[in-house]
Amino acid sequence: MSSSLAAFRIAGLPPDFYYIPNFISVEEEASILQKIPAQRWTHLTRRRLQAHPSTLTKNNTLLAAPLPAYLTHPVFQRFKERGVFEGTPHRQPNHVLINEYRPGEGIMPHEDGGAYAPVVATVSLGGAVCLEVSSKASGNEDDGTTTSEPADCKDSEGSLDEGLTSTMGYTIPTRIFQEPRSLLITTGVAYRDLLHGIASVEVDEGLSAKTVANWGLLAEPGVIEDAGGRNVRGTRISLTYRDVLKVSSAASKVFGGLQKR
Ligand SMILES: O=C(O)CCC(=O)C(=O)O
Ligand SMILES: [Fe+2]
């Protein structure tokens, strides 16, 4: 990850989350929102989504196809400037999931898994939302905040598994507040060993410098303070950019098929 990202690292969380406020402008946000195709949604119980250029095959392969221009411009250039995908096999995203959450909707705690290079870049549009971050090792039950011990306080014979070890010294579970037009990058240990989810609530509550890990990076913490630590959800659309590891060229399939005849 490039050094221009260092200033945006969310300190106090396992490596690495980066939060960049105002990654896109109000005009760019409006333009993207207006171009999301209305007929492409798949409806789930608690949200709806669409995959571009398409859903992965059963063995997690992407059928190579270009992404629509509104998803690549202007964000690809900005990813490049910041080196977001410089360490992934294709050096840029080849897949985008668009998720829409209305007030009261969310997504269960989960990990994104091994079909992708371990870098996800999430652009938030419309409403703000809290991402709940929890550790795989401690489960995802929200039984209050627990702080695991710093690694250097443990003796090296400790029988803790890798997941626990890598989250030591960090306050987890915690929350990342995602403002509209922001970018959140999840990579490394954070990608591998943590779970993320969005609570199905109409209001995020109790938001403060103490409970929100990226408070110091927010564009407008005053908005939350003025609202008494509450975020009344509006409709939020997220674009999650990823580099799918296995890509199959449609053309080679067609020609391979023809050659067999
Ligand atoms: O909407 C988000 O910010 C999270 C979406 C997500 O976790 C996913 O698509 O895997
Ligand atoms: Fe996810």
TrEMBL record:
<comment type="similarity">
    <text>Belongs to the alkB family.</text>
</comment>
<dbReference type="InterPro" id="IPR037151">
    <property type="entry name" value="AlkB-like_sf"/>
</dbReference>
<dbReference type="GO" id="GO:0046872">
    <property type="term" value="F:metal ion binding"/>
</dbReference>
<dbReference type="Pfam" id="PF13532">
    <property type="entry name" value="2OG-FeII_Oxy_2"/>
</dbReference>
<dbReference type="GO" id="GO:0005634">
    <property type="term" value="C:nucleus"/>
</dbReference>
<dbReference type="GO" id="GO:0051213">
    <property type="term" value="F:dioxygenase activity"/>
</dbReference>
<dbReference type="InterPro" id="IPR032862">
    <property type="entry name" value="ALKBH6"/>
</dbReference>
<keyword id="KW-0479">Metal-binding</keyword>
<feature type="domain" description="Fe2OG dioxygenase">
    <location>
        <begin position="92"/>
        <end position="245"/>
    </location>
</feature>
<keyword id="KW-0223">Dioxygenase</keyword>
<keyword id="KW-0408">Iron</keyword>
<keyword id="KW-0560">Oxidoreductase</keyword>
<feature type="region of interest" description="Disordered">
    <location>
        <begin position="136"/>
        <end position="165"/>
    </location>
</feature>
<dbReference type="InterPro" id="IPR027450">
    <property type="entry name" value="AlkB-like"/>
</dbReference>
<keyword id="KW-0539">Nucleus</keyword>
<protein>
    <recommendedName>
        <fullName>Fe2OG dioxygenase domain-containing protein</fullName>
    </recommendedName>
</protein>
<dbReference type="InterPro" id="IPR005123">
    <property type="entry name" value="Oxoglu/Fe-dep_dioxygenase_dom"/>
</dbReference>
